[in-house]
């Protein structure tokens, strides 16, 4: 592996390093400009926010609640359609994802229910006094 690195020309490595430094420096300068612009905009907008806060805060809360309500409603609607689609595919026998796991779980539950029923019948037969058995 060391032989391969040594075989590359030095100019190739210099070009890679120069490109990395240029890109990194450009991004650093850009992030500094964005930070400065944000601070200036905040300094200019603060008086307006203080003056209009009695109107803006309730309006912001209202807008937040409306957006949250619509997004929640849409999300629950999509979830409901997905569930209904899955159920339809399962009932029609199209084997949707997870159907095999559901069938295995149903079989395990049915087996355990039968075992519990048999145990209850055995327990009931063992604990009923001889004179009080019903016919």
TrEMBL record:
UniProt subcellular location: Lipid droplet; Membrane
Coiled-coil blocks: 99-126
Signal peptide bounds: none
The keyword Chloroplast belongs to this UniProt entry's keyword annotation: no
Entry membrane topology: Multi-pass membrane protein
Family: Belongs to the oleosin family.
GO biological process entries: lipid storage; post-embryonic development; reproductive structure development
Alphabetic keyword roster: Coiled coil, Lipid droplet, Membrane, Transmembrane, Transmembrane helix
This protein's GO CC annotations: extracellular region; membrane; monolayer-surrounded lipid storage body
UniProt keyword Phosphoprotein, yes or no: no
UniProt xrefs under Pfam families: Oleosin
Lineage, top ranks: Eukaryota, Viridiplantae, Streptophyta, Embryophyta, Tracheophyta
Function statement: May have a structural role to stabilize the lipid body during desiccation of the seed by preventing coalescence of the oil. Probably interacts with both lipid and phospholipid moieties of lipid bodies. May also provide recognition signals for specific lipase anchorage in lipolysis during seedling growth.
The protein's name in its UniProt record: Oleosin
Transmembrane segments annotated in the record for this chain: 21-51, 63-88
């Amino acid at each position: 592996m060391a032989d391969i690195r040594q075989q590359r020309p030095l100019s190739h490595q210099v070009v890679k390093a120069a490109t990395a430094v240029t890109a990194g420096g450009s991004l650093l300068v850009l992030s500094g400009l964005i930070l400065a612009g944000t601070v200036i905009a905040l300094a200019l907008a603060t008086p307006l926010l203080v003056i209009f806060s009695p109107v803006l805060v309730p309006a912001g809360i209202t807008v937040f609640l409306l957006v949250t309500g619509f997004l929640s409603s849409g999300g629950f609607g999509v979830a409901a359609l997905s569930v209904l689609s899955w159920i339809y595919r399962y009932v029609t026998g199209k084997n949707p994802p997870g159907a095999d796991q559901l069938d295995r779980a149903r079989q395990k539950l049915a087996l355990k229910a039968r075992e519990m029923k048999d145990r209850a019948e055995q327990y009931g037969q063992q604990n009923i006094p001889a004179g009080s058995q019903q016919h």
